[in-house]
Amino acid sequence: MNYGVYIHIPFCRKKCFYCDFPSFAGKEKYMEDYVAALCREITMQGALLPGKAVTVYIGGGTPTTLPLKLLEKIIVQLRASFEIVNDNEFTIEVNPGTVTLAILERLHELGVNRLSIGVQSFNDNLLQRIGRVHTADTARYAVLMARQAGFANVSIDLMYGLPGQTLTILEESVMQAFELDLQHISIYGLQVEEDTVFFRQRDMGKLDLPDEDQVEQMYDYMVYVLPKHGYARYEISNFARPGFASRHNMSYWQNVPYVGLGAAAHSYYNGHRLANLQDISAYIAKLQKGEAVSFEEEIITSEISMEEFCFLALRTTKGIDKAAFSAAFHCMIESVYSDVIAAMKSKGLLVDEGGWIHLTPLGMKYGNIVFEAFLL
Amino acid sequence: MQTKNIRNFSIIAHIDHGKSTIADRLIEYTGTLSKREMEAQVLDTMDLERERGITIKAQTVRLDYTGEDGELYELNLIDTPGHVDFTYEVSRSLAACEGALLVVDAAQGVEAQTLANVYMALEHNLEIIPVINKIDLPNADPEKVKQEIEDVIGLDTSDAVFASAKAGIGIKEILDKVVEKVPAPSGDDNKPLTALIFDSYFDPYKGVIAHIRVMDGCIKKGMMLRMMATGKNFEVTDVGCFKPAPVNMEKLSAGQVGFVAGSLKNVKDVRVGDTVTSMENPAAKALEGYRGVNPMVYCGLYPVDSADYDNLKDALEKLQLNDAALVFEPETSMALGFGYRCGFLGLLHMDVVQERLEREYDLRLITTAPSVIYHVHKTNGEMLKIDNPSKLPPATEVEFIEEPYVKATVIVPNDYVGAVMEISQEKRGEFKNMDYLDVNRVMITYHIPLSEIIYDYFDRLKSATRGYASLDYELVDYKQSKLVKLDILLNAEPVDALSIIVHTERAAARGRQLAAKLKEIIPQQMFEIPIQAAVGSKIIARENVRAMRKDVLAKCYGGDISRKRKLLEKQKEGKKRMKSVGNVEVPQEAFMAILKID
Fold first, then answer.
1. ipTM
2. Phi–psi pair at B273, nearest 5 degrees
3. Which residues of A touch B562 (CB under 8 A)?
4. Is residue A101 within 8 Å of A149, Cβ to Cβ?
5. A307 vs B: CB within 8 A
6. Tell me: the pLDDT tens digits for B180-208?
7. Among A88, A240, B228, B505, which lies 20 to 30 A Cα-Cα from B490?
């Protein structure tokens, strides 16, 4: 079995206003114990799982809030417990302002070959408004340092639909991104989630979100301008130069197994979806006793498996490989979904051609309507 | 049992004034059921009744009680439905009694509905025993309530019982007063049989069981009987009384209350208010007061999933076994497909039926806005009874339209008189009367179109009077009104199920409100949806549901597919409650939007 490995670092210097991920500021005192526990989980899982890791992704939170020696410990343990193929993709998420050239160089030495930098915007006012800890200059500097440290595969995240953001501000940010000669850009439309600062601000009527029309314009602009500058869309929110689509990212959409390590991480292998405990102290305590930290999230019936195969694959521009569907489920996709496919085609959301079923540009916009239709 | 030792009585009370609890205590005290056998509320048997604290079906129980004089008495308690929708049923239950307990909450005082029922009891010459309940409440003022009963109703309250059913206070006194005050029934075993049907229910093994009060004559097993109004003949297979489970007896004699069962398969043959007589020696005249079932409110019921059509029919038929007041017939809507037009006694009845269909039969339904029956006089002299707005003939063929008016009686503290009058006026009410019940309670009477009552009159009253208003109404007559049909168009297509009939002067405002409400209810879709309100070909209001700009989840944090899936499932669940009308997805509640306008 070849699989991806995801490692979760639930620490950050400050919680961003839009973030509802399992990540916490002010819990530095747990870092040491957490990494020890994580290493233990890595050892246990590594011994359990046959096969090889093709991709590794260390995300968070902000992995680089950990002291370098702890990060080193994790990577060393990972290499000791898992067999990682030579031609791997090894990504770490980085926040501008949390890294130095020395840290990046060391990470590169340890075999990390891809950086995902959380830039979000190159507008200082906006960065402050959404609770980021860095400025536009720091972000640019992080990208330059990455290159200097030897990284040939650098990605940034950009957000749109932010409070106070206009199309012009977004355009400026995108143009600045283009100057940095990146390999990969992810775009995220703001969703105001419960238990975030933005959610409370919206409740109090203090969140100046752009209206739907403006957000749509921003979206339209992004999906137009990125390909024009050489970043092809390969998934709803991901764009890359040729050959730089994130392999780890794709594994989520392509039914490839992945192993999640660390608090709140998710795994998918042998037909099971598992979730790890979210609570950091509980996670540490369990592992100190050598107990398992994951629990089955749902039993994947063949029905669920089919649904997921489809709605995940549809997120990619290539879409569903009909032959792969037949191979996986021993039936033609039409025998299950012919009505759905016809209905979605008639709405102009789906195309069925050359053995693949994929979203139209309109379908990308209204993805949820299509995904939902594929639920049986 | 000698007739002189029989007492037939019912309990009159406003919702929540403690009727069921008192009934429970009486059953307990007389040892009819042991405490262990009692459910919390024996007489309200349907879950729904218990939840809502109301009685929908009348229940009967025979209590054997040894009085102060050492004699054994047979006390028949007939529990009456406690809601304005069931006025006729209440009147038949009262007609089966010689006395009634008037239960009034010691903190709340007399309410409009209590009053209406008391007057009805007085019309039937019942001996009324005031019971002031909940005297143990901290804010109870039994003396004041006692005075109020004297002032408002004009009853002598020197014999009133102070009670707390909850605390078991005054229960024996109630029983003794019933024995002492309620007259024994008059009636002659040797006269031709007349027995009043005041309720019925369907038993899967025995067929329809009629609740009856024998006026004259007697009923024995094996007799051949006849329903005088429906003409149905049947042989008596079982006769008996309720304790509260049915117990077979040899016979029911004049003055007694109980049940009779026979080869009765259809609840429609057993009408409340009908007279049972014997075929061999029939009575010359039926008992007075029989009235056929007259639904006052109609609405369309449609399955969300058209495959459920037959299930809906089965469910309605089953409910009808126990509910002669429920009528239905197939109906087709351009927008909603195949369904049923159903008639109800009132809004509560409608609510209850709808809820039972969804709960007990697991049906997902779309209910269209309730309508009253309009008398539409056409230019060709023909008169149509229209219970569905979409069936209204074109304006050119209509000479005039009449609509039902009710006499609405509202009781409020005098601080709220202005509010009540304002709302009633706005609802096209005609002021009739105003009486001070005491220094700070006022009874106001209006004649108001029933259609206004079923919209939101009571809700408005409640909120404008901080919940103090109580309402009772009864149909008075049909009156000519300037009415028009208001149509709603979605995406330029008229949706028949959204049509309503409104007063001409209010059409524009209603149209605007309804369009605005629908805009709130109908979710954004991939395209813009114009909502128009029209009278004839004239568009009087327009709103737009803007097109959804985009709908796609971007993030997928760390492979958390389950979360994504849950979001999609939630979205799909929401869609299940929607009906495709043309190419627009319309949520269930849109069809009731007219009721939610403020």
1. 0.84
2. 100, -15
3. 266, 273, 275, 297-298
4. yes
5. yes
6. 999 999 989 999 999 999 988 888 788 88
7. B505
